[in-house]
Amino acid sequence: MKPENIVVIRGGGDLATGVIQKFYRSGFKLLVLETQNPTAIRRSVSLCEAVYTGYTVVEDVSCTRIEALSELDECYAHNTVPILVDPGAESIMQIKPIAVIDAILAKRNLGTHKNMAPVTIALGPGFCAGEDVSAVIETMRGHDLGRLILKGYAHPNTGTPGEVGGKSVQRVIRASSAGTIKHIRQIGDTVKAEEVLCEISGEKVTAPFTGLLRGLLREGLNAHKGMKIADIDPRLDVNWRTISDKARCIGGAALEAFFYLSNSMMEEQK
């Protein structure tokens, strides 16, 4: 293992998976850090599912859960991306990566800072480029999506999802009460308005409109009131098995940011 070649990505959800694929295809050794119980809802395109299953594949990227850094070399030998439960990112001090990318999308900084690596990148609001991290990637849909921010902040979180197929807030379904989720329908199903999608401690959760069930919180997890638990897309022909346009855009921007910042550092050292 050559530590200088490793890029650490905090988070393995759907947008993080777009970042992971770009760096994976570009030949980088990666390490994904996750929590013990990831809560991605677009699970079919989220490599963090490997935390639960031990192994998962999204498009051309396979991901394997590891329990210790000593397993990294075996993953690299088998061309699979390792994922480690390390919510505090404590392993970063041991491997000294060339870059750290915060792709948690928590809308706030959960501990990522510039001293973690020569290049530090964060996705979305909650970070100040130039202070907290080297660069921030804009994640809000629209003209600035994927823009590199080298000084200052991304657009603040509005709490309103971008419009897709004429639907915005209605696309994201939130828990009306706390409890354990039980599936009635599955990701990839076409559902009708008012059809039951799942139950939370016996309370039925229904579809607000006819569409494709693109995301659904993993069965058995505990949801808190107001938590995102499902995502419906009004476009019935959308491919829920592949990485989204937004994730690809953000992934490409993160890769651009890495090379831009790395080249800038080399120029400064001349």
Short structural summary:
The chain is of the alpha/beta class and 270 residues long. The chain has helices at 14-25, 50-53, 72-77, 92-95, 245-269; strands at 6-10, 29-34, 55-58, 61-66, 81-85, 99-102, 119-123, 135-137, 148-149, 172-174, 179-183, 190-191, 196-200, 203-206, 211-216, 222-223, 228-233.
Kindly provide the radius of gyration, computed on alpha-carbon positions and rounded to a whole number of angstroms: 19 Å
Query: What is the overall silhouette?
Result: globular
Broad CATH class of the largest domain: Alpha Beta
Give me the count of strands: 17
Structural class: alpha/beta
Mean pLDDT, rounded to whole units?
94
Remind me, CATH topology of the largest domain?
Rossmann fold
* Number of structural units classed as domains: 2
Note the gap between the termini: 28 Å
Structural summary, described in words:
The model has no long low-confidence stretch (mean pLDDT 94). The chain has helices spanning 14-25, 50-53, 72-77, 92-95, 245-269, and strands at residues 6-10, 29-34, 55-58, 61-66, 81-85, 99-102, 119-123, 135-137, 148-149, 172-174, 179-183, 190-191, 196-200, 203-206, 211-216, 222-223, 228-233. Helix 1 packs across helix 5 (245-269). The protein is α/β, with parallel strands linked by helices and 270 residues long. Strands 3-4-5-2-1-6-7-8-9 form a nine-stranded mixed β-sheet. The longest helix has 25 residues, at 245-269.
Secondary structure blueprint with pairings:
Layout (H helix, E strand, L loop, with lengths): L5 E5 L3 H12 L3 E6 L15 H4 L1 E4 L2 E6 L5 H6 L3 E5 L6 H4 L3 E4 L16 E5 L11 E3 L10 E2 L22 E3 L4 E5 L6 E2 L4 E5 L2 E4 L4 E6 L5 E2 L4 E6 L11 H25 L1
Parallel strand pairs: 1-2, 1-6, 2-5, 4-5, 6-7, 7-8
Antiparallel strand pairs: 3-4, 8-9, 10-17, 11-13, 11-16, 12-15, 13-14, 15-17
Helix pairs in contact: 1-5
